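Request:
You are asked to prepare a plain-text protein record giving the amino acid sequence and the backbone structure tokens, at your earliest convenience.
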Amino acid sequence: MIFRFTKQLRCMDVKLVQLMGDTVVFIESIVFRKQSARNIEDILLSSVRGDNQELIIDEINISKDNFKNLGDYHYKISFITLNDLGGNVVSAVEIVLGNVDLRFKYDNVKFDENDVTISLAHMMVFPAGTNTVKELEDE
């Protein structure tokens, strides 16, 4: 399947699973920059390379409880987004990037009563991992 992001770059139901441990972090949503979305498309079409492995995230929305579980780990990330099939037709897909590292500065973290918003985060995708896209079936 050839995957293309729609103009809406928000990804929902994001899950980070620690590769060498048992930490699981649930994230409400992630918004990738346009070039990062293109990098993900390229990774899924071919492979991880030096010119496509860095992903810039404009915004992460996460609960305070899940924010506390974020650590300096390598993760497998999965998320749901929309695939542009052309002609104003979209489908829901699940994307998995098998080995990523998430970094952000605490200066870019905003705390609300129950939620946390992180702006300008960096995610690095590493070659040692399986990267997949799967069309979701109607339920």
